[in-house]
Every structure is written in structure tokens, then in C-alpha cells.
């Protein structure tokens, strides 16, 4: 006898599998970015010069937090997206409220002025990031995916690229424009160009923004992104002892 896939044999509804975007960093670190991951059991993280994120298979699982403590060591700061609370003995500097938006109607297209950026361009990228502050960008963040830029008289003036990549989805990040060149639509052009590459390989673009950045959220929504969920970017410090408690 064949049963519908969403009904158990006892007639009760089958549990719904969590959406990968609900724990995007974990889906990336155990998926397309697994080659970059440092991992212990049910915890994983990016190298500290690639990205600030760590992730847990289940943020409600005390064993996953214990694995994270073993992974990063005592008295270490790390960002854990999607976690709402920390176990006893951990500290948090509070969370930054954020939003997650997904592409539902974006017009993706290459840009003839966009140039691919790589490790040799990192000093210029870091300079632009320091002047515009779109979010964390580290010396090897360029390894996460494709980064595109626009130059003016040889100088990098706008940037956008790929950060978290998980099965079927890729995050657009580091969207920024030099203050002296804003108002020309450069960020929009680069978002469309990065999205074109993401779509070409069969993924759907998504992105995150601080909930307080209403200007950026409005721009993304006008381009065809739709709010999917609200989330928190939690910054935590591991316990200072060599071993974390195994339970909350």
C-alpha cells in the first residue's frame, strides 16, 4: 500500500523537514562550503580569516554547544546566526536583529562594467569595506564565492559578492558603494550581476540585512526580494574554562 509522503502510517501528519534557510550557515558549512569548514561533531565554523560565522546542527541542542566550545576553545568570540539563547556559562554581547529576504522577482543580468575580484584585490576591497561598513569582510572572505566590482579611473568604487552558499541557495553580501559615487545605481547593477551568476548555476539568491537598515531593505524589496523571516545575529563568547557543561 502506498501512503502519501506527508502522512504517517498512523494517520498523523508527518513532521515537516526544516528549511535550509532557517539554519543557513550550518547548511553551507555542511554542504557546498564543507571544504572550508572546521568541524567538531554538531558544530562547525569558518576559518577566522574567512568569515565570522559558526553554526550548530540544532541551536536548541546542548551537545551542539559543547561541540562548539571544543571547536573554538575557551574565552573566544564567535557569531552564531539563528541562535536565540546561550547555555549557562556562555556570554553574549546581545544580538543584532536581522531580516532574511529571498529573490521572488529580481531581474538578474550581467553588467558589462563589472569585473571579477580575487585575492590580489583584497587590499582594495578591505579599504572600500572600511569606508562603507556593509558588514564583516576578512582577508580570505573572497574564497566564499564570486565577488564583482566596478572601478572608476582604476579605483574600486562598488562591490557585491557571494557569502553563504547552501544547496539550492546563495547569499548576496558585501553590497557597498563609495560615498562619492552613490546615487548612480551601482549597487543595483552589481546585485543584478551577482544574481545572474547565481541563477546560471541553478541557485536562488537570498540575502540578510540588519532590521534597522530600512533603506537597504526598501531597496532590496524594490528590486524583487521578499521578506522571508526575521532572525538574530548572535555574538557569543565561549566559557573561559577548558570544558563547557554538557547540558543547559
UniProtKB/TrEMBL annotation:
GO MF annotations in UniProt: acyltransferase activity, transferring groups other than amino-acyl groups
InterPro entries in UniProt: Acyl_CoA_acyltransferase, GCN5-like_dom, GNAT_dom, YpeA/RimI_acetyltransf
According to the record, the segments passing through the membrane are none
Keyword Cytoplasm in annotation: no
What Pfam families does its record include? FR47
* Location of the N-acetyltransferase domain: 112-248
- Protein name, please? GNAT family N-acetyltransferase
Keyword terms of this UniProt record: Acyltransferase, Transferase
Q: What organism, scientifically named, is this protein from?
A: Streptomyces griseicoloratus
Amino acid at each position: 500500500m502506498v501512503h502519501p509522503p506527508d502522512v504517517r502510517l498512523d494517520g498523523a501528519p508527518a513532521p515537516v523537514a526544516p528549511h535550509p534557510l532557517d539554519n543557513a550557515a550550518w547548511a553551507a558549512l555542511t554542504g557546498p562550503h564543507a571544504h572550508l569548514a572546521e568541524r567538531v561533531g554538531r558544530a562547525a565554523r569558518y576559518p577566522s580569516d574567512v568569515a565570522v560565522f559558526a553554526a550548530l546542527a540544532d541551536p536548541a541542542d546542548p551537545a551542539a554547544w559543547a561541540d562548539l566550545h571544543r571547536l573554538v576553545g575557551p574565552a573566544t568570540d564567535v557569531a552564531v546566526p539563528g541562535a536565540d539563547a546561550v547555555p549557562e556559562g556562555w556570554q553574549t554581547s546581545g544580538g543584532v536583529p536581522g531580516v532574511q529576504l529571498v529573490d521572488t522577482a529580481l531581474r538578474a543580468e550581467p553588467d558589462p562594467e563589472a569585473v571579477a575580484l580575487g585575492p590580489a584585490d583584497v587590499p582594495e576591497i578591505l579599504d572600500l569595506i572600511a569606508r562603507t561598513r556593509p558588514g564583516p569582510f576578512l582577508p580570505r572572505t573572497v574564497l566564499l564565492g564570486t565577488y564583482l566590482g566596478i572601478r572608476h579611473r582604476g579605483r574600486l568604487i562598488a562591490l557585491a559578492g557571494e557569502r553563504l552558499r547552501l544547496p539550492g541557495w546563495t547569499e548576496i553580501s558585501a553590497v557597498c558603494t563609495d560615498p562619492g559615487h552613490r546615487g548612480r545605481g551601482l549597487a543595483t547593477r552589481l546585485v543584478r550581476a551577482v544574481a545572474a551568476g547565481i541563477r546560471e548555476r541553478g541557485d536562488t539568491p537570498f540575502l540578510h540585512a540588519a532590521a534597522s537598515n530600512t533603506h537597504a531593505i526598501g531597496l532590496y524589496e524594490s528590486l524583487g526580494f521578499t521578506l522571508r523571516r526575521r532572525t538574530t545575529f548572535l555574538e557569543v563568547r565561549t566559557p573561559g574554562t577548558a570544558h563547557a557543561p554538557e547540558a543547559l
